[in-house]
Amino acid sequence: MSTRTEQDLSQLLRQFLLPATLVVVAGLLVVDLFRRLVTGAVGTATLATFLWDGVVFGMAIGLAGIGLAMTYSILKFANFAHGDYITFGAFAGWMVTFVVAGLGDFSLDLLVLVSGELSVADIGINVLATPLAIVLGLVVAAAATAALALVVDRIVFKPMRDADGISLLIASVGVALALRHVLLLVFQGSSRTLTTDVASVSVSVGDGAVAFGAHEVTLVVLAAVLMIGTHALLQYTKLGTAMRAMADNEDLARVTGIPTERVVRTAWLLGGALTGAAGFLIALESGTMNTSFGWELLLVIFSAVILGGIGSVYGAIAGGLIIGVASRLSLIWLPSELILAGAFGVMIVALLVKPQGLLGGVKTV
Amino acid sequence: MSEPTETPATRLLAWLTDGDLRLLSVLTVSLFVLVWVLSFFSGIREPGRILSQIQGVAFIAVLYVMLALSLNLQWGYTGLLNLGVAGFMAIGVYTMALLSMPTSAAVPGLGLPLWIGIPGGVLVASLFGALVALPAIRLQADYLAIVTLAFSEIVRLVIRSQEAASFTIAGTRLGTGGTDSLALPTSPVKVLLYEDPSQPAAIAAASPTPLGDILFTAGEQIGASPAVMESLVYTVFLLVIAVAFFWLVSRIANSPFGRVLKAIREDELVASSLGKDTRLFKIKVFALGSGMMGLVSILWFLERGSVTPATFVPDLTFFVFVALILGGSGSNMGGVIGSLVFVVLLLESPRFIRRIIRESFDPPAPPETIFDALSGVDPLLGYFTSQESISALRFILLGIILVYLMQQRPDGLLGHRTEVASNVDLADRQQTEEES
């Protein structure tokens, strides 16, 4: 009897009170934003800059999240090594970019190690000055990370296909620790600068201007192209259909004659390539990297993927954009140190209200 | 699987695993003999300094034993994957600091005595445990893992932020010290040993209490400084608390409450079908375990005298997991044994081995890059025995061990360990039923 009442209460809390509170809080924030805009405490240009930064960050997180969502939907476990795949991709790609851009003028050793001792101004890498080096780096980042994902799957996850999601999760924590510290051992810990300043297009907005940097635009455009490509692959190819089928029901997929092991390999291949590309582009946009930046992004990516409904590729993209824009907009209210804490908070609240995610329930990979 | 042939080795193993206590004592003795041997070969030969090394390792080992026991309640018994261990530890120790730091300190607290500060820290840690468990109740285990990890990062980021570094509530200035190291109240052991405990150890040692005097004189005989003796007393004090932890967790495991926890781990649906409100059980056990983690962290850093937020990165949580999984989660003795093995072999021995290599081969200063290191044996040795490289190698080894354990020995090194879920012998009860 009492349990019944309790259940009703928690039902009420979950389905009505919490969402209602959220709506009220969101409403208050919007009102406050308008007040700040009207009083001039926040300029329209500042707001537009926050929005653009949010879109850039969101596209990066969304792209990085696709691989995580893909392997989650097919293998049914949260891959904690995903962040370090991002780092790996970035290092593999930037190694090539540095070698292509600086060969002949600088010591090969330092170029291969993307060493912080190299003077960035002298190599002068940016997307306008050395487009070939950047493109080659991007391709290698994708290829190398896809290869890494396949190798790790073969060694670590394949022998555990029958294990439960938790054992796989813990094993992936092991992979994450080992991979990150192998990178640390080889490349060493110092943060390195990668690119020189690059031209940007200024668009005047209200009381100021928003600058669209070439690297930011590159990231957004390439991420969008890769996302559309992934969408086409999933929707219009036989392989994509097989992947979606397996995400929906593995047993059913198997009895229909879908080679499940091949689908798993494809998921790693595709997810790995997208992850590596994301790592390369994130480093390009921020202009710096170190051996732990992917790990530090992992929780943000998880937040995005969970917000969109873990296991849904489209959800990952949508979640990434929401987290990206929300985290940058939150700068209006929060000090920059606490943005990440805010993003994680959003994820926890989202789980409370809608554990299946925004696009959850529909498992279309 | 074929029957193993009987050799002296297997017979010895059978004898050792016959009783848990016997295994534990033999293992502890051999691990600490190993520490002794390692410190001897790394050039630490005086009894006083060896005692100091053994004390240092034992201190960390006892802490991990307690952490593993707390985690065993949540993960081992109930199957709640808590990746926020570091967060609850941070909450415990920082709450204690906020409550008990003197109001006159550089980063002031409320100035309350420790007997309020310590329970306060534990209480707040367990309250947050309950709070985090709330959304987690209905979630799958992997969501819980992500939520708890995110929670622990939120805690760490908030503690190190400028806003928390120093703030004022109702006219009282408080703070966490931000990214800097935060001084903590004087440890109770210092109060026990020194007349003037708030002074630095070197000055305070000049005026010991009668008890301190006895211990310090004894220490002098083997060349152990008062600081070593003080830490030794602290470690013994921790050991007593660890035994209490073990007793508590074992009591819980064998109580009706503990049986429900195990039922939740095995099949939550069945447990709730039997009329158990599994959500309430989960919240309770999460709060209890988190409070215990808070206590461990308070005790840990009271001895150290200060604390920084950088300690509470997720790696700390993973360490505790490796310790528990090594011995076999779900078993308290497994947790204890796993922690001892983890701390001695994985956490502490690398720095001895590094010293031994450096002492015996005298490698050159670490080369700048790994390519320079590959130019010969000596530079290679120099590169891999640098402080950073040893730490990285340790993490790589940990990662490989985690993967190996999950693949080959998911039940831990000792293999599957069954714990009787009932506190009365079932065979016994059957007999009684027959008689009546």
TrEMBL record, chain A:
- Signal sequence span is none
UniProt main location, coarse:
membrane
UniProt keyword annotation of Ribonucleoprotein present: no
Q: Which GO terms describe its biological process?
A: D-alanine transmembrane transport; L-alanine transport; L-isoleucine import across plasma membrane
Which top-level group of life is the source organism from?
Archaea
Membrane-spanning ranges: 12-31, 51-73, 85-103, 123-156, 168-189, 209-234, 267-285, 297-324, 331-353
Q: Recorded GO terms, molecular function?
A: L-isoleucine transmembrane transporter activity; L-leucine transmembrane transporter activity; L-phenylalanine transmembrane transporter activity; L-valine transmembrane transporter activity
Membrane protein topology class: Multi-pass membrane protein
As for subcellular location, the record says: Cell membrane
Q: Which family does it belong to?
A: Belongs to the binding-protein-dependent transport system permease family. LivHM subfamily.
What name appears for this protein in its UniProt entry?
Answer: Branched-chain amino acid ABC transporter permease
Q: Give the species this sequence originates from.
A: Halovenus carboxidivorans
From TrEMBL, chain B:
UniProt keyword annotations, A-Z? Cell membrane, Membrane, Transmembrane, Transmembrane helix
Query: From what superkingdom does this record's organism come?
Result: Archaea
Name the coiled-coil region(s).
none
Compartments where found: Cell membrane
The signal peptide annotation in the UniProt record is: none
Question: Per the record, GO CC terms?
Answer: plasma membrane
Record-annotated membrane-spanning stretches:
21-44, 50-73, 80-100, 112-134, 141-159, 231-249, 285-302, 318-347, 390-407
Under Pfam families, the record lists:
BPD_transp_2
User: Which Gene Ontology MF annotations are present?
Assistant: branched-chain amino acid transmembrane transporter activity
Membrane topology type, per the record?
Multi-pass membrane protein
Protein name as it appears in the record: Branched-chain amino acid ABC transporter permease
Source organism per entry reads Halovenus carboxidivorans
